[in-house]
Amino acid sequence: MTRTGARREARWALGTVLVLGALACGSGGDGAVTLPPGGGAAVAPLDVTGWVAATDGTMPLVIVAPHGGDLVPTELPDRTCAGCETVNDANTRALAIEIADAFARRIGKRPFVVANLLSRRKFDANRDLTEATGSYAPLAPLWTLFHQRIDSAKARAARVHPRALLIDLHGHAHAVPRLELGYLLSAANLRLPDSIVTPLMFASSIARLDSSARSGDAGVVLLRGARSLGTRFAQSGFPAVPSASDPAPAVSDAYFNGGYDTQRHGSQVAGPVDAIQIECNYAGVRDTPAARANFAEAFVTATLAYLADHYGWVPA
User: What domains can you pick out in the chain, each with its CATH number?
Assistant: First the structure.
Protein backbone atom coordinates (compact mmCIF):
# COMPACT_ATOMS: atom_id res chain seq x y z
CA MET A 1 0.00 0.00 0.00
CA THR A 2 1.29 3.48 -0.85
CA ARG A 3 1.57 6.21 1.74
CA THR A 4 -1.42 7.93 0.09
CA GLY A 5 -3.39 4.72 0.26
CA ALA A 6 -2.57 4.29 3.93
CA ARG A 7 -3.80 7.79 4.67
CA ARG A 8 -6.99 7.10 2.74
CA GLU A 9 -7.60 3.89 4.72
CA ALA A 10 -7.06 5.72 8.01
CA ARG A 11 -9.40 8.52 6.94
CA TRP A 12 -12.10 6.01 6.00
CA ALA A 13 -11.83 4.27 9.39
CA LEU A 14 -12.13 7.57 11.24
CA GLY A 15 -15.19 8.61 9.28
CA THR A 16 -16.83 5.25 9.87
CA VAL A 17 -16.40 5.65 13.64
CA LEU A 18 -17.69 9.22 13.62
CA VAL A 19 -20.62 8.79 11.28
CA LEU A 20 -21.97 5.31 10.86
CA GLY A 21 -22.53 4.72 14.53
CA ALA A 22 -25.20 7.42 14.44
CA LEU A 23 -27.54 5.90 11.83
CA ALA A 24 -31.19 6.50 12.57
CA CYS A 25 -32.29 3.10 11.30
CA GLY A 26 -30.78 -0.30 12.11
CA SER A 27 -28.08 -1.31 9.66
CA GLY A 28 -26.48 -4.40 11.13
CA GLY A 29 -25.18 -7.38 9.24
CA ASP A 30 -27.34 -9.75 7.22
CA GLY A 31 -27.27 -12.47 9.86
CA ALA A 32 -28.80 -15.89 9.53
CA VAL A 33 -32.58 -16.02 9.63
CA THR A 34 -34.28 -18.71 11.66
CA LEU A 35 -37.81 -19.95 12.02
CA PRO A 36 -39.83 -18.66 14.97
CA PRO A 37 -39.11 -20.39 18.29
CA GLY A 38 -40.97 -23.57 18.99
CA GLY A 39 -39.93 -25.65 16.00
CA GLY A 40 -42.65 -27.32 13.97
CA ALA A 41 -42.98 -28.32 10.37
CA ALA A 42 -41.10 -26.47 7.65
CA VAL A 43 -43.03 -23.62 6.07
CA ALA A 44 -43.70 -23.84 2.33
CA PRO A 45 -41.97 -21.19 0.21
CA LEU A 46 -43.96 -17.99 -0.19
CA ASP A 47 -44.74 -16.27 -3.46
CA VAL A 48 -43.36 -12.84 -2.57
CA THR A 49 -43.53 -11.26 -6.02
CA GLY A 50 -46.84 -9.54 -5.33
CA TRP A 51 -45.44 -7.66 -2.32
CA VAL A 52 -43.03 -5.41 -4.20
CA ALA A 53 -44.13 -2.86 -6.81
CA ALA A 54 -41.58 -1.53 -9.29
CA THR A 55 -42.28 0.81 -12.20
CA ASP A 56 -39.89 1.79 -14.96
CA GLY A 57 -38.61 5.30 -15.38
CA THR A 58 -37.08 7.49 -18.05
CA MET A 59 -34.85 9.80 -16.00
CA PRO A 60 -31.87 9.40 -13.64
CA LEU A 61 -33.97 9.38 -10.48
CA VAL A 62 -35.10 6.45 -8.32
CA ILE A 63 -37.73 6.87 -5.60
CA VAL A 64 -38.03 4.14 -2.96
CA ALA A 65 -40.99 3.88 -0.58
CA PRO A 66 -40.15 1.18 1.99
CA HIS A 67 -42.68 2.00 4.72
CA GLY A 68 -45.90 2.86 2.87
CA GLY A 69 -47.34 -0.62 2.37
CA ASP A 70 -50.61 -1.64 3.99
CA LEU A 71 -51.05 -5.34 3.17
CA VAL A 72 -51.31 -7.62 6.21
CA PRO A 73 -51.49 -11.21 4.90
CA THR A 74 -52.80 -13.52 7.60
CA GLU A 75 -50.24 -16.18 6.70
CA LEU A 76 -47.42 -13.91 7.88
CA PRO A 77 -46.64 -13.49 11.58
CA ASP A 78 -46.29 -10.02 13.04
CA ARG A 79 -42.73 -8.88 13.66
CA THR A 80 -42.05 -9.05 17.39
CA CYS A 81 -38.27 -8.58 17.57
CA ALA A 82 -36.91 -6.39 20.35
CA GLY A 83 -36.93 -2.78 19.25
CA CYS A 84 -38.85 -3.50 16.05
CA GLU A 85 -40.75 -0.48 14.73
CA THR A 86 -44.12 -1.55 13.30
CA VAL A 87 -45.85 1.78 12.55
CA ASN A 88 -46.18 2.68 8.87
CA ASP A 89 -45.10 5.99 7.37
CA ALA A 90 -48.63 6.95 6.42
CA ASN A 91 -49.35 7.80 2.78
CA THR A 92 -45.73 7.64 1.65
CA ARG A 93 -46.44 5.17 -1.14
CA ALA A 94 -49.29 7.40 -2.34
CA LEU A 95 -46.88 10.33 -2.14
CA ALA A 96 -44.28 8.50 -4.25
CA ILE A 97 -46.91 7.80 -6.91
CA GLU A 98 -48.07 11.43 -6.88
CA ILE A 99 -44.49 12.62 -7.29
CA ALA A 100 -43.93 10.28 -10.25
CA ASP A 101 -47.15 11.54 -11.86
CA ALA A 102 -46.09 15.15 -11.28
CA PHE A 103 -42.82 14.55 -13.15
CA ALA A 104 -44.77 13.01 -16.04
CA ARG A 105 -47.10 16.01 -16.21
CA ARG A 106 -44.27 18.54 -15.99
CA ILE A 107 -41.57 17.07 -18.24
CA GLY A 108 -43.04 13.94 -19.84
CA LYS A 109 -40.57 11.72 -18.00
CA ARG A 110 -40.94 9.54 -14.91
CA PRO A 111 -38.62 8.45 -12.12
CA PHE A 112 -38.13 4.77 -11.37
CA VAL A 113 -40.26 3.82 -8.34
CA VAL A 114 -39.82 0.82 -6.02
CA ALA A 115 -42.29 0.27 -3.17
CA ASN A 116 -42.81 -2.31 -0.48
CA LEU A 117 -46.51 -3.23 -0.27
CA LEU A 118 -46.52 -5.00 3.09
CA SER A 119 -47.38 -3.30 6.34
CA ARG A 120 -44.42 -2.71 8.61
CA ARG A 121 -46.08 -5.08 11.08
CA LYS A 122 -45.09 -7.86 8.69
CA PHE A 123 -41.93 -6.59 6.98
CA ASP A 124 -39.61 -3.59 7.30
CA ALA A 125 -37.91 -2.84 4.00
CA ASN A 126 -35.44 -0.38 5.56
CA ARG A 127 -33.64 -2.82 7.84
CA ASP A 128 -31.09 -5.59 7.57
CA LEU A 129 -32.35 -9.08 6.81
CA THR A 130 -32.93 -10.28 10.34
CA GLU A 131 -34.82 -7.23 11.58
CA ALA A 132 -36.66 -6.71 8.29
CA THR A 133 -38.22 -10.17 8.45
CA GLY A 134 -38.51 -10.46 12.21
CA SER A 135 -36.34 -13.61 11.81
CA TYR A 136 -39.12 -15.29 9.82
CA ALA A 137 -37.14 -17.28 7.27
CA PRO A 138 -39.81 -17.60 4.55
CA LEU A 139 -39.73 -13.79 4.10
CA ALA A 140 -36.02 -13.72 3.28
CA PRO A 141 -36.72 -13.95 -0.48
CA LEU A 142 -38.86 -10.78 -0.22
CA TRP A 143 -35.97 -8.85 1.30
CA THR A 144 -33.70 -10.09 -1.49
CA LEU A 145 -36.27 -9.23 -4.17
CA PHE A 146 -36.86 -5.74 -2.81
CA HIS A 147 -33.18 -4.86 -3.02
CA GLN A 148 -32.82 -6.55 -6.40
CA ARG A 149 -35.60 -4.31 -7.71
CA ILE A 150 -33.75 -1.24 -6.37
CA ASP A 151 -30.45 -2.44 -7.85
CA SER A 152 -32.15 -2.93 -11.20
CA ALA A 153 -33.73 0.53 -11.08
CA LYS A 154 -30.37 2.10 -10.20
CA ALA A 155 -28.64 0.33 -13.08
CA ARG A 156 -31.28 1.43 -15.57
CA ALA A 157 -31.30 5.00 -14.23
CA ALA A 158 -27.53 5.12 -14.71
CA ARG A 159 -28.03 4.08 -18.33
CA VAL A 160 -30.26 7.11 -18.85
CA HIS A 161 -27.46 9.34 -17.53
CA PRO A 162 -23.99 8.40 -16.19
CA ARG A 163 -24.88 9.61 -12.70
CA ALA A 164 -28.20 9.15 -10.86
CA LEU A 165 -29.91 9.99 -7.59
CA LEU A 166 -31.99 7.77 -5.28
CA ILE A 167 -34.50 9.25 -2.84
CA ASP A 168 -35.60 7.03 0.05
CA LEU A 169 -39.01 8.47 0.96
CA HIS A 170 -40.27 8.33 4.55
CA GLY A 171 -42.54 10.09 7.03
CA HIS A 172 -41.81 11.32 10.54
CA ALA A 173 -43.89 12.54 13.48
CA HIS A 174 -41.32 14.77 15.13
CA ALA A 175 -42.28 18.02 16.83
CA VAL A 176 -40.69 20.31 14.23
CA PRO A 177 -42.78 20.30 11.02
CA ARG A 178 -40.10 20.21 8.34
CA LEU A 179 -38.43 17.85 5.91
CA GLU A 180 -35.46 15.97 7.32
CA LEU A 181 -32.83 15.12 4.72
CA GLY A 182 -30.53 12.28 5.71
CA TYR A 183 -27.03 11.83 4.30
CA LEU A 184 -25.73 9.35 6.94
CA LEU A 185 -24.30 12.27 8.90
CA SER A 186 -25.65 12.56 12.44
CA ALA A 187 -27.27 15.65 13.92
CA ALA A 188 -24.14 16.09 16.05
CA ASN A 189 -22.02 15.97 12.88
CA LEU A 190 -24.18 18.64 11.24
CA ARG A 191 -23.79 20.93 14.25
CA LEU A 192 -20.01 20.94 13.83
CA PRO A 193 -18.24 23.87 12.12
CA ASP A 194 -18.19 23.71 8.31
CA SER A 195 -14.45 23.06 8.32
CA ILE A 196 -15.01 19.84 10.27
CA VAL A 197 -18.15 18.67 8.47
CA THR A 198 -16.56 18.90 5.01
CA PRO A 199 -13.96 16.15 5.64
CA LEU A 200 -16.77 13.80 6.73
CA MET A 201 -18.46 13.92 3.34
CA PHE A 202 -16.49 10.92 2.07
CA ALA A 203 -18.54 8.77 4.48
CA SER A 204 -21.88 10.27 3.46
CA SER A 205 -24.48 8.75 1.13
CA ILE A 206 -23.51 11.34 -1.53
CA ALA A 207 -19.77 10.71 -1.28
CA ARG A 208 -19.38 10.32 -5.04
CA LEU A 209 -21.21 13.60 -5.68
CA ASP A 210 -18.87 15.32 -3.24
CA SER A 211 -15.97 14.59 -5.57
CA SER A 212 -17.68 15.04 -8.94
CA ALA A 213 -20.59 17.50 -8.79
CA ARG A 214 -21.02 19.26 -12.13
CA SER A 215 -21.62 22.51 -10.22
CA GLY A 216 -18.22 22.35 -8.58
CA ASP A 217 -19.89 22.42 -5.16
CA ALA A 218 -18.37 20.13 -2.54
CA GLY A 219 -18.31 19.50 1.16
CA VAL A 220 -20.79 21.16 3.43
CA VAL A 221 -22.03 23.35 0.55
CA LEU A 222 -23.77 20.25 -0.86
CA LEU A 223 -25.62 19.84 2.45
CA ARG A 224 -26.73 23.40 3.20
CA GLY A 225 -25.48 25.70 0.49
CA ALA A 226 -27.52 27.71 -1.96
CA ARG A 227 -27.84 24.76 -4.35
CA SER A 228 -28.37 22.03 -1.75
CA LEU A 229 -31.55 19.97 -1.95
CA GLY A 230 -32.75 21.19 1.45
CA THR A 231 -32.38 24.80 0.34
CA ARG A 232 -34.24 24.07 -2.89
CA PHE A 233 -37.15 22.64 -0.90
CA ALA A 234 -37.15 25.60 1.48
CA GLN A 235 -37.28 27.97 -1.50
CA SER A 236 -40.34 26.04 -2.72
CA GLY A 237 -42.14 26.60 0.58
CA PHE A 238 -41.22 23.42 2.47
CA PRO A 239 -38.78 24.01 5.35
CA ALA A 240 -35.97 21.46 5.45
CA VAL A 241 -32.94 20.52 7.51
CA PRO A 242 -30.11 20.75 6.61
CA SER A 243 -30.49 23.83 4.41
CA ALA A 244 -29.17 27.36 4.20
CA SER A 245 -31.92 28.62 6.53
CA ASP A 246 -31.81 25.61 8.90
CA PRO A 247 -28.27 24.21 8.80
CA ALA A 248 -28.58 21.59 11.56
CA PRO A 249 -31.08 20.18 14.06
CA ALA A 250 -30.91 21.70 17.52
CA VAL A 251 -29.60 19.50 20.31
CA SER A 252 -33.17 18.97 21.52
CA ASP A 253 -34.57 18.11 18.08
CA ALA A 254 -35.26 14.58 16.89
CA TYR A 255 -33.70 13.90 13.49
CA PHE A 256 -33.46 10.89 11.16
CA ASN A 257 -30.17 10.92 9.27
CA GLY A 258 -30.61 7.87 7.03
CA GLY A 259 -31.04 4.14 7.44
CA TYR A 260 -30.22 0.81 5.89
CA ASP A 261 -31.45 1.66 2.39
CA THR A 262 -29.53 4.93 2.24
CA GLN A 263 -26.38 3.19 3.40
CA ARG A 264 -26.73 0.23 1.05
CA HIS A 265 -27.80 2.10 -2.07
CA GLY A 266 -25.88 5.38 -1.80
CA SER A 267 -22.36 6.16 -2.98
CA GLN A 268 -20.69 5.87 0.40
CA VAL A 269 -18.67 2.88 -0.79
CA ALA A 270 -18.73 3.27 -4.57
CA GLY A 271 -21.03 3.43 -7.56
CA PRO A 272 -22.69 6.04 -9.77
CA VAL A 273 -25.85 6.52 -7.68
CA ASP A 274 -26.07 8.83 -4.68
CA ALA A 275 -28.83 8.47 -2.07
CA ILE A 276 -30.68 10.89 0.19
CA GLN A 277 -33.32 9.93 2.73
CA ILE A 278 -36.21 12.40 2.92
CA GLU A 279 -38.37 12.21 6.03
CA CYS A 280 -41.58 14.14 5.41
CA ASN A 281 -43.68 15.73 8.11
CA TYR A 282 -47.37 14.83 7.97
CA ALA A 283 -49.54 17.94 7.93
CA GLY A 284 -49.37 19.85 4.69
CA VAL A 285 -47.15 17.28 2.96
CA ARG A 286 -48.75 13.84 2.99
CA ASP A 287 -51.98 14.10 5.00
CA THR A 288 -54.43 14.84 2.17
CA PRO A 289 -54.55 14.35 -1.61
CA ALA A 290 -54.32 18.11 -2.08
CA ALA A 291 -51.28 18.36 0.19
CA ARG A 292 -49.56 15.48 -1.60
CA ALA A 293 -50.20 17.06 -4.99
CA ASN A 294 -48.84 20.41 -3.81
CA PHE A 295 -45.72 18.84 -2.31
CA ALA A 296 -45.19 16.73 -5.41
CA GLU A 297 -44.98 19.86 -7.54
CA ALA A 298 -42.42 21.35 -5.15
CA PHE A 299 -40.50 18.06 -5.20
CA VAL A 300 -40.31 18.20 -8.99
CA THR A 301 -39.09 21.81 -8.93
CA ALA A 302 -36.44 21.18 -6.28
CA THR A 303 -35.18 17.91 -7.73
CA LEU A 304 -34.98 19.12 -11.32
CA ALA A 305 -32.84 22.05 -10.14
CA TYR A 306 -30.66 19.67 -8.11
CA LEU A 307 -30.18 17.28 -11.04
CA ALA A 308 -29.32 20.14 -13.38
CA ASP A 309 -26.92 21.82 -10.95
CA HIS A 310 -24.96 18.80 -9.75
CA TYR A 311 -25.55 16.01 -12.28
CA GLY A 312 -25.74 18.02 -15.47
CA TRP A 313 -29.05 16.41 -16.39
CA VAL A 314 -31.93 18.35 -17.91
CA PRO A 315 -34.98 16.81 -19.63
CA ALA A 316 -34.64 16.76 -23.39
Answer: 61-311 (3.40.630.40)
